[in-house]
Amino acid sequence: MRDTLQSVGFEQIRKFLPPGDDISLGNDFLVVDVQKHDPGSFIDSPFRTDTFLAIFCEKGGFEIEINLRKFRIQDNTLVVCIPGYILKVGKMGAGKDLNGRIVAMALSRQFISDIKFDFSRLFESRLMFFYDPRIMLTDNEMSFCSKYFHLVKSILDTGIPTKIASVKSLVESLLHVLEGMVSENNDEPEPEPSKSAQTRLNMLFERFMSLVSEYHSTERGMAFYANRLGITPKYLSRLIKDVSGRSAPEWIDAFVIQEAKSMLKYTDDSIKEIVYKLNFTNASVFYKFFRSQTGMTPSEYRNR
After folding, report:
1. Angle of CA points 212, 9, 125, to nearest 5°
2. What residues contact residue 69 under an 8 Å CB cut-off, 6+ apart?
3. Does position 287 have pLDDT exceeding 90, yes or no?
4. For a tag on the chain, would you pick the N or C end, based on fewer CB atoms within 10 A?
5. Percentage of residues of the chain with pLDDT beyond 70
6. Distance between CA 32 and CA 40 in Å, rounded?
7. Is pLDDT of 95 > 60?
8. Residue 276's pLDDT band (boundaries 50, 70, 90)?
9. Residue 228 to residues 66, 181, 208, 225: CA-CA distances in angstroms?
């Protein structure tokens, strides 16, 4: 095991790919034809993604571990991961799996911030995607998404001066399509608040989630996040509950327990070191928190 988890971004991915094998826009947008590689051949250990990842599996399949949960990704599956997610890619299967069609797109935080799209509408229950980031698509839906992918690749292969704006527009359009696909499977009626008010709430929620992803190891108090957002802790608490249906502490705890589990499973850090790195006041507090979240002690979890 290692002392820390490897963070994988654009440069790390490119390091393990033959020259010219990826199609990209600098360090902001990257498309990789995954089936040309066995993912385990260049990322054979757990890693923390520094980018937004979208993995489209048209045919075939592979195994992947996301936030310590194992999934078998097969036909017509879209997997969405945000910065901070911990991934472990298994070996590609034999036989028909190797003849599959699997494409991965990586988008930087800056690229995402430049897109005019309300991500909280697509992921209204972000905690659900934290535990299971898969979206199952029909044959027609996957075929439709595939057309977007091929169009993006075609534009990136050209030398037109407007290809950056063109690709951003296509990605934004694809996100709207995915939102529609996801909402079709949601039978619950959506409230109709004023557009401007809802936009502000969603922006604050997304900013809160980004801050939690970045600072959960050291900051768990509401005051810290409220201060960074320029609002009061009371308003932040009510906002997060209203937008997501879950409290702010629940979101923070979800990231903290994930971090603790990852450190126990994937690193050689002692319990004492983990307590320090996660900013718990002492081992007793950490043990109590861990047991309340998992039903077992840190040592039991590490040795199971």
Report:
1. 35
2. 131, 132
3. yes
4. C
5. 75
6. 14
7. no
8. very high
9. 29, 34, 9, 5
E strand map for 50-150: 52-59, 62-66, 69-73, 77-81, 86-92, 101-107, 134-136
Segment of 66-75, 154-163, 182-191, 196-205 carrying the highest mean pLDDT: 154-163
Whether the Cβ atoms of residue 58 and residue 75 lie closer than 8 Å to each other = yes
Which are the contacts of 174, defined by CB distance < 8 A and separation ≥ 6?
145, 148
Token couple for 16: 């393990």
pLDDT band of residue 190 (cuts 50, 70, 90) is very low
124 or 50: whose pLDDT is higher? 50
The pLDDT value given to residue 183 = 66
> How open is the CA angle 34-37-43, to the nearest 5 degrees?
90
What are the tokens at 171? 């990605």
Helix or strand run (H / E) with residue 33: strand 29-33
Instruction: List the domains of the chain with CATH numbers.
Output: 6-184 (2.60.120.280), 195-303 (1.10.10.60)
Q: Are 108 and 27 in contact (CB under 8 A)?
A: yes
Could you tell me how many residues make up the chain? 304
Nearest Cα to 74, choosing from 88, 90, 57?
Answer: 57
CA dihedral 11, 208, 116, 58 (to 10 degrees): 60
Asked whether the predicted pLDDT for residue 169 surpasses 80, the reply is yes
Pairing of strands 6-8, 47-49: parallel
